[in-house]
Amino acid sequence: MAPIDPHSFTDSAHPLTTHISLTLFFDFPSSTISSATLLSLPTPYTGPLTFDTRSLSVSSVLDPLSLSPLPFSLSPDSPILGQSLTVSLSNQNQILILSKTSPSSSALQWLSPPQTFNKTHPFVYTQCQSIHARSIFPCQDTPAARVKYAAKLNIPRQLSAVMAARHVERRDPLPSEAQGVCEDSAWCGDDRVVEEFVMEQPIPPYLFAFAVGELGFREVGPRTRVYAEAVPAVLDAAAKEFAGTEEMIQVGEKLFGPYDWERFDLLVLPPSFPYGGMENPRMVFLTPTVIKGDASGAQVVAHELAHSWTGNLITNKNNDHFWLNEGFTTYAERRIVEVVQGEDIAALNIGIGWRGLVEEMERFKDNMEFTKLKTNQAGVDPDDVYSQVPYEKGFQFLWRIERQIGRPAFDDFLKKYIATFKFQSIDTDMFLNFLKANVPGIENEIDLKLWTEGTGIPPDAMEPVSNIYSKIVLLANEFKLGRMPREDEVADWKGQEWELYLENLPKSVEASQVTALDARYHLSESKDYEVRVAFLQLAISARCRDYYGEVEKTLKEVGRMKYLRPLYTALVQGAGKEEEKVFARRVFTEACDCYHPIAQGVAEAILAKHA
């Protein structure tokens, strides 16, 4: 057996699925989904065929034409990969698998009514990246296996569903369509409704996504609705924050070619959503922490929009090449931001990213493999090594190429790259070969091997050059000498300026300095979580216990890993932190039920390592 992906049981000798048809019955009281998964191959096949599963109970595998059972076996459970499901086929090109999710499915977060805004109805949503689609339905859970799909979601009638796919209709259930996921009487209950969706373009399985709950929406553009829980204040704030979305789509099209996904809708999720955004096609998922009231949250939308070209159209073949998704998208996002919000804001973004990259070098100093662009992740959980490196070092690599050949030539190259590889999954060598073929002699100007296979930050990476960036870094350096910025110096600062300032402050400052800074600028109460969390990290490192109440409140009200990871790490890392370790454990124990399973795992790993 030769795996094509260190994170999948998919065998290189086996055919890849091309279409999946899903019949899903949502049971909120048990936090489970019963599913019938119809997998289609390009041609009839004889022999073993292996799929990925995690925490799924598989009840039967059938030939969908005769409904006769097909022999299957499940491997022992692997902590990272889950279980392989191997089916024996005899000249079949379709397989029907009946299965049920576990309440602890790693892709799903089930929220009880008290955990939602309106407190009246439950809510469930997915997060399938990197390798969690397999915990919803059996599949070849690798980006190398792109699939089209159709889905019927049978849900309680008082709820509605959205999906990263085209909505076909909402209708009454039909008795003939349950496919064995439940009794016809349950499928066709008076209190049930079916929402039907179709995805007509081939996507990697990690982009499979849905949410079910009490949802409302606002129109914000010809291609864009903003969805969220049906709370007018949340919907209105989101619509205001993302009012400029259509302009960004048009800028993206000018830079990278036509937008190929028809709709670009946004879903603002409950605060437990573990990422800033997830680029699910046609329906981007967002954390509510990006709604800041000053339209700066649109930068996360710019990033997810950029994925419509780099990541969704062209996808990394597996997680060893994750930079092909995220480095390109970070570059593309900053190009969009530069046009829409100006060069200074783009430079601030690059500066914040640079600080993040430098900090990741410290984080991985004992395991420099994960400071490479092209990594080896065999035996490693991709969630454990998720970092800014593929984003920011990947960005730096592409920015370096742009500086070498000039922006007009690089823009032409990007358009050609996207047109050549769209709807394909590629690896680093394919990109480098394309680069060398289209930019002759580039390997003599830039050390491509050092950039992609070397550890650390290459010597020809660079910080941004801008007046505002230099001024903020200068002010941060003066703080070390005891000088706080004057009010007139920060009068026009928004969240990003403060974030950059705080991230450039020395890690060891006096508690009195921290308290004085907060007394003047009230950073611990900032509505902008980037600012608040950066300040609280500073407070923890200075052992300012006055702020631990604010730390606890923050860890309990959001589940975004960008905030959980640094706060829990700051509390427990280092010597003489016994009091902090007890505090961190208590807060985690009280908060963890409100975190998505992926975030629970990340926080648990930090505590297990240090506490």
UniProtKB/TrEMBL annotation:
UniProt domain Peptidase M1 leukotriene A4 hydrolase/aminopeptidase C-terminal: residue ranges: 467-607
Protein family (similarity comment): Belongs to the peptidase M1 family.
Protein name, per record: Leucine aminopeptidase
Family matches, as SMART domains: Leuk-A4-hydro_C
Organism: Nicotiana attenuata (Coyote tobacco)
Positions of Zn(2+) binding: 303, 307, 326
Cofactor note: Binds 1 zinc ion per subunit.
UniProt subcellular location: Cytoplasm
GO molecular function, one term: metallopeptidase activity
Catalytic residues identified in the record: 304 (proton acceptor), 391 (proton donor)
SUPFAM superfamilies: ARM repeat, Leukotriene A4 hydrolase N-terminal domain, Metalloproteases ('zincins'), catalytic domain
Record function comment: Aminopeptidase that preferentially cleaves di- and tripeptides. Also has low epoxide hydrolase activity (in vitro). Can hydrolyze the epoxide leukotriene LTA(4) but it forms preferentially 5,6-dihydroxy-7,9,11,14-eicosatetraenoic acid rather than the cytokine leukotriene B(4) as the product compared to the homologous mammalian enzyme (in vitro).
Record-listed a peptide binding positions: 127-129, 274-279, 560-562
A GO term from the CC aspect: cytosol
Reported cofactor(s): Zn(2+)
Catalysed transformations (reactions): an epoxide + H2O = an ethanediol
Xref: InterPro entries: Aminopeptidase_N-like_N, Aminopeptidase_N-like_N_sf, ARM-type_fold, LTA4H_cat, M1_LTA-4_hydro/amino_C_sf, M1_LTA4H, Peptidase_M1, Peptidase_M1_C
EC number: 3.3.2.10
Keyword annotations from UniProtKB, A to Z: Cytoplasm, Hydrolase, Metal-binding, Metalloprotease, Protease, Zinc
Enzyme class, broadest EC rank: hydrolase
Pfam family, one: Peptidase_M1_N
